[in-house]
Amino acid sequence: MEELIKPFRAALESLDRIAADNVFRQALERLSPIAAVEQLVVPALEQVGAAWEDGRVALSQVYMSGRFCEELVEKVLPRSDPDRKHQPRSAIVVLSDYHTLGKRIVYSMMRAAGYELFDYGRMDVDELVARALADKISVLLISVLLLPSALKVRAVSDQLKAAGAPVKILVGGAPFLFDAQLWRDVGADAMGRSAADAVNIVHGWMGEMP
Amino acid sequence: MNGTAMNSMQRTLTTLGQQEPDRVPLFLLTTMHGAKELDLSIEEYFSRAEHVIEGQLLLLKKYRRDCLYPFFHASIETEAWGGTTIFLPDGPPLCGAPVIARPEQIDNLQPPAVMQSPGLCRVLATIGGLKAQVQDTVPIIGVAISPFSLPVMQMGFDSYIELIYEQPERFERLMQANIAFSVEWANAQLAAGATAICYFDPVSSTTNIPRDLYLKTGQQVAKRALAQIKGPTATHMASGRCLPIMAEIAETGTAVVGVSVLEDLAKLKAAAKQRVSLLGNLNGIEMRRWTPEQAEAEVKRAIAKAGRGGGFLLGDNHGEIPWQVPDDVLLAISAAVERWGRYPLDWVDDWSDGGG
Ligand code: B12
Predict the structure, then answer these.
(1) Contact A59 B209 (CB under 8 A)
(2) What are the residues facing B314 on neighbouring strands?
(3) What is the reported pTM?
(4) What is the number of structural domains in chain A?
(5) What's the rounded mean pLDDT across residues A41-53?
(6) Which residues of B touch A178 (CB under 8 A)?
(7) What is the ipTM of this complex?
(8) Which CATH number fits domain B8-350: 3.40.50.2300, 3.30.420.40, 3.40.1190.20, 3.20.20.210?
């Protein structure tokens, strides 16, 4: 499978849908859909995300790659497929600000990796806390673009803790990239520098959860 | 010229001419902080030109900075296109729902007239009021969001990326409308008394689009727009990366590039090759929790890396200091520029990175 990752990634970065589709088909000849996703799509998207972190790939490529992979995965792994990872119960939200692209990219990436998660859209603190408690969420992904929104994660974290809910909070978005300490300051459990990080971190947490 | 004290305009023009002025010009781009000075909410503050004039003049004195910055907020431009602004108690105003809900709307899009927009007229009145106070002693920096970056607010970032890749004709149609608007807006600010226009173009940054796409899109748009703007411009990447396209940004005819803390200032300065000056690159987000000592160390680092030979304006890396940044940090930055920004920068010979 290793040898397919490179051409697949190259096809994604140059937005060549036909080439990407071909490589994905080759993978499907050898592997089950879920294995093709895990061994080809996820590593390729991870590499694209990592390349964005250090400035070798642009956001427009990250976005288009994620969108395209989400479509590929949707075709072979429909929503109801038991292979989709429904655990842990997760949700993603844009906290307080109105910029939804970061969330959309992370959501695509998680779904392309076979995860199902609630999409809460945009919410303010109180609404988010109430909803996360009602849905018994155990992993909450929060995306923000503005510094004041990032600082509001503190209230979410405090209120969830006060309610005794064992929710792990993963944050991401521009302010966290500019201040490496910010996620700790606001009481998050981790931060992801790119959408690909989200998959790795949630995967790691899954292993720790009962 | 080093020995004599200069006024802010002389200092700025000297550095833009790639010469060393008396000290590094301080372009501390504070906007919302004026509301704190006047004890107003951010929304009240931006509702009247008089407030912003007073706030800017107070900040000019307080931080001993070298420019006035009558920028209100990016969404004041989308208001002219029929959009709304959402005010926050503790952060920058934001644009409301996109005015272009479907790409087809672009086909009939007409650029709005600047003079018919109350928000833009308020900015022009602010610029006029500031100019009456300082004449030509302090640069007044107007702002125009680039025609290429404006669509993120007009239609949403995701739809805009799709438009660029998938609908080149509509994209071009949108650029025509936006260029007409941005040029009229920039020229109106120059006519009202602005010294230069800060052209915010972060979508062109390699953080957001790849270099080859920039050459086909953002750079062409910038060339077309800047050629019609009747005054000097500074191209700002709003903290996005630009090292791989520095030479190409210089080709657009801009005088200054606003650069990010995500890239090394010494490398950026080398890439600028004295063709453009640099503005940057203090980390505004991190500034919120700096101590005065850290602020001083960061100022020293920036000056050591890019100050020599002129061609450098010290500022934050985004073009707006966040509301949460406390006064003692801003005052420490200002004091550090006084102390370490005096030319010739002899101390730089003994400075090493990491040592602060
Ligand atoms: C392009 C840009 C603009 C453009 C378009 C803005 C827009 N999106 O609406 C223009 C010029 C119009 C602009 C204007 C403004 N901007 Co601006 N802009 C940027 C820039 C360069 C990119 C923003 C962006 O949308 N990126 C795309 C998103 C998807 O990227 P991202 O959030 O980093 O997400 C990635 C990762 O972080 C991660 N991720 C995101 N969420 C999550 C969640 C999880 C769980 C995980 C694991 C990962 C993850 O995955 C994503 C993909 O890899 C940034 C600086 C920068 N270098 O990033 C400033 C920035 C966002 N802008 C900022 C500000 C303040 C503004 C204004 C409010 C200024 C003003 N006073 O008017 C306006 C607001 C405009 C509006 N919408 O109303 C600040 C916000 C922080 C702050 N200071 O509060 C930034 C961060 C600059 C800075 N360094 O301070 N801006």
Answers:
(1) yes
(2) B26, B280
(3) 0.96
(4) 2
(5) 92
(6) 239, 261, 283-286
(7) 0.95
(8) 3.20.20.210
